[in-house]
Automatic annotation (TrEMBL):
Chain ranges of the Isochorismatase-like domain: 3-174
Transmembrane feature ranges: none
InterPro entries noted in UniProt: Isochorismatase-like_dom, Isochorismatase-like_hydrls, Isochorismatase-like_sf
Protein's name in the database: Nicotinamidase-related amidase
Keyword Translocase: no
SUPFAM superfamilies attached to this UniProt entry: Isochorismatase-like hydrolases
Biological source species: Roseateles saccharophilus (Pseudomonas saccharophila)
Entries under Pfam families matching the protein: Isochorismatase
Keywords carried by this UniProt record: Hydrolase
Length: 182
């Protein structure tokens, strides 16, 4: 049974300084997946970014570092804290997954081109069967090194394209839920 890995769904991600984003339905899709995983008794891991930068909304103890209320972990669900985009780096996540025999991951969360992409790359490189749920992730607009602004949807799609095939399989919410039936 695949592990649902929910990345950085924290209060600070809902604040305007985060920027213009795509996939306004992502939280609803994540909540649907979380409900299905819980109903099936399948494993769920919540990842929380804890910043090392003073003043960051994700600094320890700040309201922005808390999980969004609708996506708050239950006591029996594993929580991983990270300080860099990749949820595997210095977190014990790989060890936790291996110790429980988990080999498949379904990844949702934010942001597609940062923590989701970094985590999915590591998962693929570590040999996990990795799925990224495109409509349960979102990105923010970004300016490239030439000074060209790219809208959030374009950033999101490029990050997914970077992952498809080599590191992960890109799916939607319904396909992710169907993985539980296998």
């Amino acid at each position: 049974m695949p592990v649902l890995l929910i990345i950085d769904m924290q209060v600070g991600m809902t604040w305007p300084p985060s920027g213009v984003r795509n996939n306004p339905q992502a939280e609803d899709n994540i909540a649907r997946l979380l409900d299905r995983w819980r109903h099936a008794g399948a494993p769920v891991v919540h990842v929380r970014h804890i910043s090392r930068t003073p003043g960051s909304p994700f600094w320890p103890g700040q309201p922005g570092a808390e999980f969004q209320p609708a996506l708050t972990p239950r006591d029996e669900e594993h929580v991983v804290e990270k300080n860099v985009p990749d949820a595997f780096t210095h977190s014990g996540l790989e060890r936790w997954l291996h110790a429980r025999g988990h080999r498949a991951l379904v990844i949702a969360g934010v942001s597609t081109n940062n923590s989701v992409e970094a985590t999915a790359r590591s998962a693929g490189n570590l040999g996990f069967q990795t799925h990224v749920v495109a409509d349960a992730c979102f990105a923010f607009g970004k300016t490239d090194l030439r000074g060209v602004d790219h809208p959030a949807e374009e950033v999101h799609q490029m990050a997914l394209a970077n992952l498809q095939g080599e590191y992960a399989t890109i799916i939607d919410t319904e396909a992710a839920a169907a993985l539980l039936a296998r």
